[in-house]
Amino acid sequence: MVVADKNSKLYLSYLALFSVTMIWGGSWPIGRVIAQNLPPLLASAMRYSIALPFFILFAWIAERSLKLGSRKMHLKVAILGVFQVSLYNFFYLSGVRYTSASDATLIISLTPTLTALIASKVHIDEKLNLAKIIGLMFALTGVALVMLQSPNTDVEDRFLGNFFIFMASLIWATFTVFSKPVLKQVKPMIFTAWGSIYGWIVLVVLALVVDFDYLTADTFVNLDTNVYLGLIYLAILAGAVGNIVFNGTIKKIGSSNTAIFVNFVPVFGITFSVILLGEAFSLWYLVSFVLIVTGVTIVNRNLILYHPPPDHLSFLKRFKKHKMRDTKNIK
Question: Is there a domain that residue 79 lies in?
Answer without folding.
Answer: yes
